[in-house]
User: Fold these one by one.
Assistant:
Number 1:
Amino acid sequence: MLDKLIEWDERLFLHLNAYGIDWLDPIMFAITGTAIWIPMYLFIIYLTFKAYGKASIWILVGIGLAILLADQGTSGLMKPYFGRLRPCHDTRWEGQILNYRYCGGLYGFASSHASNAFAVATYFCLVFYKKIRGFGWLFLWAAIFSYTRIYLGVHYPGDVLIGALVGILSALIGFYLAIYLKNKINPKLYPN
């Protein structure tokens, strides 16, 4: 069964990666980077402080925990444990796939980009659920951000899907752990 899932994952990757467009390659490469998203992150931090004041410190602790769990869960644990080559490192696909500019580390299961993006999307949807509506767009951002990894030939769809699930779980853990720590340390100093 696992072999069949891997085969389907590889077929889907080859299908999705086959639609590279020359003018789109540098755009997808820019989207997959970090620097382009700094203004969005700063805006979210601004909204956090505007909505929560002093309690924002606990929100930042929580997102830090979520990203730490998401990133280390994929990069530190899963990639070395499973040892699944990235498509761009797999010699079976030489000359068959689009790989624009770089390949990254040897292993790709699961995607840290997807994990971190979905952790951010989930976490801030939880944070702003009662204060500010309309943060569901973060899931669209996370999906596009994650798809660039397939487009650029550095991850299989399964890598991205499992990375997204790890990110969502990490966000839930980070969110509820931050609430627990806030309430344990001094609930009156930082009200909800």
Number 2:
Amino acid sequence: MKTKPNILAIVVIILSLFSCGQSNEKKKKAVRKDSVSATFLQKEKERLEKRKKLEQQNRIDSVRFDQILTNAIKIATQNIDKNKFHQEYKVNTAIEVDINFDNHFTKKHPHLIIHRYGINDVYIDIYSKVNNKFKKVVSHKEWSLTYRNDTIRDINGDGLKDFVLNWYGATGCCLKAFSNIYLLREDQKTFSNSFEFINPTFSPKEKIIRGVQYGHPGETEMYKYRWNGETIDTLEYVYYEKDKNDKKTGKLIISKNKPYNNNKKETVILSSMPNEYKTIEGYDWFTGKGYE
């Protein structure tokens, strides 16, 4: 008769311990959850604080660079009656300023070009001389890390010199040399909006741009564009033909459509590459030779 109460007592103790264990586990999970939430909130707070500081610094830098530009224009205006004027100086040893007033693009109309080289960014502003004042006609901002150079040359074959800015992408796996083009208009004072090309080779005599698109070596296409005033006409794309297993057949496709486009109209299949593409910059990247 004493056995049943003892068994009952043991069952009660076991249930009590199990219940206690569950309670403790719930408490631990709650603590862990609260800890994760607190960590997330702290990181989010730090991220927002960093973003706020960065935005504040960007505003400060913007105001500072605006003031530097204003001062540079004042200096240039004081020398506007000269045939040409060039001055370079530093601001706070961190920002380099280059003021250059000359007949950079045409013999008839002079232009003022102001470069501001900062630690993070490069600013380039071009002004035309109108009624003895400077009127802004181009403004370009480029990340210092990607900026390469800028040049003046006839890029579209119309006999007028254009403004060309060259830069190289900072992120990504593949060939990524870019050019931003500002075409000088017929008035020889103002410029077009920016045209951006990747890995381009310009042929002004033909009014043609050939280049290699973004992609892995041997796996991307080439393009051929033609200038049409202040627009670009797409003439064709060139890429390797592939079979159902995505392997190259050894033949080339020339089409107005990019690869994987279902529209196969105006498509030509060739056994060899046209000579016009063999000399462009990045051709080896297109073929993949040397990158295996």
Number 3:
Amino acid sequence: MFSAMVQRIREVLVFLFLAIVSKVTGVKPIFSRGGFSLPFEEEEAYCLSWRLGVETNNVRGWRTVPSKCLCHIENYMTGGQYERDLELIVEQILGYADGIFLSGDGLDAWILDVDDTCLSNLLYYRGKRYGCDPYDPPAFKAWAMKGVCTAVPAAQGLFVKLVDMGFKVFLITGRDEETLGKPTTENLHNLGFFGYERLIMRTKANKGQGAVIFKSGVRKQLEGEGYRIWGNVGDQWTDLQGESLGNRTFKIPNPMYFVP
């Protein structure tokens, strides 16, 4: 761990040195990671474009973050911009919700995804180089079993306000109910997620279903029960695709992984 910390400090110092060289001399220095070299400004520009492509769903089916974008994604997720983006999105959500006239029959619904919408897996993905390492199902399951996720910044406040407004909030997740039901429920409650209408997880009947099919089926069932879905919030495009999407969808940023 100590050697890894020393290496990280060295990388940061090199990063700062190259930035100063570029500013003083006007020469674009080479910043290299993993054997791939590009002028630093070009590399950063590429990673900005890649992240935009991910968030606009133009880049699809990707398995890992490009290794040359590790520093960019780390800086985005931990340097403050991620939180600022979340605050803007929550502001838009609440502005929209404030304009909805609730019927009073208890059937005005709102849907929130769980992983990296309500519960943050940032600490886990830090150990996976912020998505540069391939997805590891057993390791993620072991992490989720611990029930130690923190809340996604601004998400807990959004949840409380939606409940206070009178919406029936449904939490829908692809996590397996049989093995992860208890730790997920306890994790949510420990972070102040009380008062939701239902936590809906995968059962044996949903095994093998893609995210779009699974979540479409859940939403369609809720509409069959009479619920009006006013809003749908998720960090993956597959949370916001398919049938019975609701009146309006909101995408939470997540450049660390892609769920098909």
Number 4:
Amino acid sequence: MPTAIAVTGPDLVLPSPDRHTPSAAVLQSAVRPPRAYSLDQALTEMHTLIEHHGYVIALCPASAPAAVTQRLYAVRSVLESDRIAVVRSDLPPLGLAVLALQLRQLSVCDFSPGVLASAARLLSHYIYAGALLGSVTKLDRVPVTLQSHAKSWLPGAQFAVLATPRPELVKLSGDGSQARLTGPAFGTKMLYAPGQLAPGWVTGHLAPAWRSQEVEEARLPAESARWWATGKLVEFAAAIPDISVLYQLVSSVRRDDCHWCGLELIGDRCAFCAAPLPPPEDRPGRPVRALLPRGAT
């Protein structure tokens, strides 16, 4: 069985694009309050996933309540298992759902659990996630100028905001056709999830400007209004949809062995035991290849 990809809410599970991509496991220990779902039940839930899949990668938004992350780490500690990776992400909700889908797609490939878990950080840099907002007065996820705060009080004001990979914010004027957000330099599929705003600017202006190869509507995650601090929004995320390109992207990065748990990893830290990579002079020599494959440009 492939490594299990677990998420902290059902809204983070996008439909599988094909019959080969497994679904994600929704952790009830994160969805239900501690009083309604005991620690023993949470332990059983995680133990069952480990028994069936061998390893579990639990994606947890950095914005999740403290009780959610504390429960995940408590389960890992009590089970004394090095087969559970708790991967926290700063991506907005729809972007995190896209990341979960990409990991699900890659879980059926020949990547080891350590490489797959540490690939989450790499793939996050290639997800362009943002939102069209009707207000930025309470937004604290992206830098907002005092001028933008003031303009946010004007009736009908709308703002295009990019959260990742580099924060940007522009105010829309007129029909919004002149508003620009820095987009990806590679082929993507765009998902958009309407809240209390019409998606016309996202589908009619942003998607063509970013040369998105495909545009598809998704359900707005329940967490989105809290993350963006307003219900007047249309959330969007553009990412690489092709599993062959994702595979090339991950496989092109140098791999190392964790000096603590022995799992393979990419990057500077093991996602399972959190041990940092030793200094370069203490690592065994391996060739370093290009970070971005040709198929992603």
